[in-house]
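Sample A.
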Amino acid sequence: MGISSMWCVMVLSLIALAPICLSHKIDDNEGNLYPQFYDHSCPRAQEIVKSVVERAVAKEARMAASLLRLHFHDCFVKGCDASLLLDSSGSITSEKRSNTNRKSARGFEVIDDIKKALEHECPKTVSCADILALAARDSTVLAGGPNWEVPLGRRDSRDASLSGSNNNIPAPNNTFQTILTKFKVVGLDLVDMVALSGSHTIGDARCTSFRQRLYGQNGNGRIDTTLDQSYAAELRTRCPRSGGDQNLFIMDIITPRKFDNNYYKNIVASKGLLNSDQVMWTKNEASKKLVEQYAEDMGLFFDHFAKSMVKMGNISPLTGSRGEIRRVCRRVNHF
């Protein structure tokens, strides 16, 4: 075979292989989330989410914490797929009914408003799961916290998991090891756990979430010894032994609506409201060191929090042809 013939064969071989290589690359990217996902299909998507969140938080400062919490409670159950937003219907039992969400998860109307605005701008394009991720970031920034690029491209699930919501989300009364295990199951580590718990710097908690610390965590009827006694006495005035379950308490007594590191300073001072807050200081040396570092260095906390939020947002997303883009976040599409 002459040189020109060999060259011809090589070129033809490369041409034949090209579609295979190209196709492989597309498959690789199909499962990836990236911030520019809507740049062409819905260029104003992030701007629209931000404007609706801004209005909601201006109307009620507490809404920032509520929207941030929705993203957490969605991602820990079946991944970040907006399953939390589904109402009960047909074979679906809503995660809103779980012990963790019932009477406490809120902000669903804000998500509805965002979705309505996006459907008007670019129908059937932006997923409810991505709306949750963007609203969580915008809420954090509006409260004075760190900013980060949100990887996008999630799709919405067609089902929900009430049992997953009851069992997988870290609870206020869980032991340190149980909480850490729940983080590890979804691919998050101890640093993520301590950093993400910092979202409580702008949150509220119900009396029922910490009552046991005031009236006998160890079965002796006494205040939890890891809780500052004067702070506990103050809490008892509005969180009685029985009744008042829904009474709300700020989790950061210094700057309750500002996203900062005072939450960690409270823990160091034995004024972490929830058991799940305080055990990071009392039950593990590695987490105690992180709490100390975040209390001293807000920049470090912000950096870790932003990175952990991206990591959490990457928990088992539906991408490519899996799931759907819901037209209404509360229900699956009916074709």
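Sample B.
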Amino acid sequence: NANALSDFFFEYETPRQVLVRNRRVGVVCRLIQLGVLVYIIGWVFIYEKGYQSTDIAVSSVFTKMKGVGYTNVNGVERVWDVSDYVFPPQGDSSFVVMTNYIITEGQQMGTCPEVLLYLLMNSRLSLFQGEMTGVCVNTTNTCEVLAWCPVEDDRIIPSPPLLMSAENYTLFIKNSVTFPIFGVTRSNLVEGIDADYINKCLYHPEDAPLCPIFRLGDIVKLSGFNFETIAQEGGTIGIVIDWTCNFDVAVKHCKPKYNFHGLYGNPSDTGQTRPSLGYNFRYAKHYLENSVQKRTLLKVFGIRFDIIVQSLARKFDIIPTLTAIGSGVGIFGVATVVCDLVLLYLLPKREFYKNMKFKYTDTPIQVRSRQCAK
């Protein structure tokens, strides 16, 4: 109505402080204030570091492998060096180390019988190794294909892995990070990691946690897997370099931490419980022999290493500090709101408290008009 609308526009409410001597309300108020205080100090300032600004690093990673492998398959001896077993060879942050393989040598383009994979119930599955010519080969009971011949037969994976020596290969990681907001650049070759130390150190989570040289067998073990198991058919390991730094202290305390995670699956799983096992790809080396183009085909089973850099730097900043304090002070008002609700609506003497909390004032004209109305 008109009076309510008039009151809304022409009346003003001002806070009135009333000291209420009620133990229950007083205890509720102090408990709420204590909870807010614990939240501000414990969570906002101590845990979340609400008084600091943050920055994420821009990073680069360089890797280098060392080690020599040896195999003797059917009397054929081979020595494998870095250029043979690392893919790609450029030292990227993601690369594959070959641990097992199936080799098919002397392939050349022509026609030959295909290889079939025999399944249960006498059903057969073609491996689609070439273009069908429509000719049947009676000696093998298979179809003839136009392909690189002889075609690859990868039905039997070598066991144990042919390059178990990869367990003793070493990986050197060089990582640098820059925090642009704070203008700080750091490298994993921190203070004390010089050439003499690198030449003799090997990473250990407790004895040498800052050494940038890692033994592949140790990496796989720290990720939760058995090296022979993962080397058999391949897998993936994540190497996480964690830069969590507090620049309120000296920059030299900003150091990397290395963590290793098996991205291959669950270590407790067996081969039968995984729908797609391992990691492999094919790699061909082409050459000419008597003017005929030939190739050596390798089905490579290996461990893929993905080096992941995660970072978070913090430093004191007055703006987030004032913002955190201001929000905390505002939250303190929750105690007043809750206690007012208890006083005005829940306690038996709520009418008494309402009269004490709210006082109505009238202008002289309003007083005379009320008197005349009487």
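B remarks: The first strand starts at residue 52 and ends at 55. The chain has a mean pLDDT of 86.
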